[in-house]
Write a structure and sequence with these properties.
By secondary structure, this protein is mostly helical. The protein is about 85% helix and about 0% strand. Helix 2 runs parallel beside helix 7 (about 170-195).
């Protein structure tokens, strides 16, 4: 009996580990949009920080991110245990916030031109070169701002993950949520650390002395890194924004009664187009989710803007 019990226990553990691995993979795929935006945002948070302080700032924000996860994971487990009905509304709120954040980025790009961004950057450079500026306070402000941003994005990641494992056992939920929390935090800030030091690596390689083939290759590669670093940041921002619409729109269309069925029907109809029908049937759901995300983001941004104006007007009258 003891041997049978042990084998049963081992089989149960193996099954749980399989479930955890599968659900962690699914949750990771669903949170990829938030991850892309998280990566871009946090890499940008260290802009304006001295080169020798970039990694300490990233590490400080990473520790804050782990603290955020220590709050969010138990909260998610409590919600799943005592208020499982709240999982879907929270997912919908998270999806709407993703769409809102993505559309806000688009609106900022459309309403604020390059001269304004250049003016902001020049002001930051002037402030940093001013000896009267308290660099310790500036750095702390950067760190706290990044940790606040991380809390919002981490809440989205944990909420999406909770929706993936809502019907699973407590052990699977705990394992998947904890796994996603650790993987996302280590992955994001590991990549952020690499990205913010990419230009330093390029500069180091580009200044290698010597006329041998290896040195010439190193200098060429370093110069390429220096040229590529700004485009990498821009690319991350674009991909992150697009992924927010796709993920957020997908969450909303799956949560709205009948919306997913309509998208499936439209995709099936697109499959009938001669020649490219097969490709259209695969791409159509993704594009429709993205369009739904853009539309939802526009509606939420309009509502937030109008609500903010009304609130300011009420406060002014009061």
């Amino acid at each position: 009996m003891a041997g049978a019990s042990l084998l049963t226990l081992i089989d149960d553990i193996a099954t749980i580990l399989d479930d955890v691995a599968l659900m962690t993979k699914v949750a990771g795929q669903k949170t990829a949009g938030v991850l892309g935006d998280d990566l871009a945002l946090n890499a940008q948070q260290v802009a304006g920080v001295r080169a020798d302080r970039e990694l300490p700032v990233v590490w400080a924000v990473a520790k804050g991110s782990f603290r955020n996860k220590l709050i969010l994971v138990p909260t998610a487990l409590l919600i799943s245990a005592f208020a499982p009905w709240a999982v879907t509304p929270l997912l919908m709120l998270g999806g709407a916030f993703l769409c809102y954040e993505g559309f806000e980025k688009l609106a900022h790009k459309l309403l604020h031109g390059k001269p304004e961004d250049a003016e902001h950057h020049e002001g930051l450079v002037v402030a940093l070169s001013n000896p009267a500026v308290d660099m310790v306070a500036f750095e702390k402000e950067k760190i706290q701002g990044a940790i606040r941003t991380d809390f919002i994005l981490s809440a989205e990641i944990i909420t999406i993950t909770l929706g993936t494992v809502a019907a699973a056992s407590f052990g699977v939920q705990l394992s998947v949520l904890a796994g996603i929390a650790v993987i996302m935090t280590a992955g994001v800030y590991g990549l952020v650390a690499g990205i913010v030091k990419l230009d330093d690596a390029g500069l180091y390689l580009s200044q290698q002395p010597g006329e041998g083939l290896l040195r010439r290759v190193q200098r060429a590669f370093g110069a390429m890194l220096l040229r590529a670093a700004p485009y990498l940041m821009k690319g991350l921002a674009v991909v992150g924004t697009a992924a927010m619409f796709l993920v957020g729109g997908g969450i909303l269309t799956h949560g709205m009664p009948g919306a997913h069925e309509v998208i499936h029907m439209l995709a099936h109809s697109a499959g009938g187009v001669p020649g490219i029908g097969g490709a259209l049937e695969v791409v159509a759901p993704v594009l429709l989710d993205g369009l739904a995300g853009i539309a939802a983001g526009a509606v939420v941004l309009a509502g937030v803007t109008l609500g903010g104006r009304l609130w300011r007007a009420v406060r002014k009258q009061g």
